[in-house]
Amino acid sequence: MFPWLLAGALLSYAVLPHCAASLGERAFPELSSSALADLANLREPSRNLDSSDPYSHLHKILIPRPADTENHTLVRNYLVSTLRKLNWHIEEDSFVDMTPYGPKNFTNVIATKDPDAPRRVVLSAHFDSKFFPSYPENQFVGATDSAASCAMMLDIAETLDPLLDARARRVEQAELGLGDDDDIDEYTAETTLQLIFFDGEEAFIDWTATDSIYGARHLAETWASTYLPPHPKRRLISAASPSTPLSTIEHLILLDLIGAPHPRVRSYFPDTAWLFDTLVSAETRLRAAGILDADALGRSFFYSRSAGDVSLSYMGDDHLPFLHRGVSVLHVITEPFPHVWHTLGDDATALDLPTLSAWNVILRVFFAEYLGLRPEPSSKRGEPSSPTHNPAQVRKSDNEL
Ligand SMILES: *[C@@H]1O[C@H](CO)[C@@H](O)[C@H](O)[C@H]1NC(C)=O
Ligand SMILES: *[C@@H]1O[C@H](CO)[C@@H](O)[C@H](O)[C@H]1NC(C)=O
Ligand SMILES: [Zn+2]
Question: Which of 166, 207, 279, 326 reaches 20 to 30 Å from 368, CA-CA?
Answer without folding.
Answer: 326
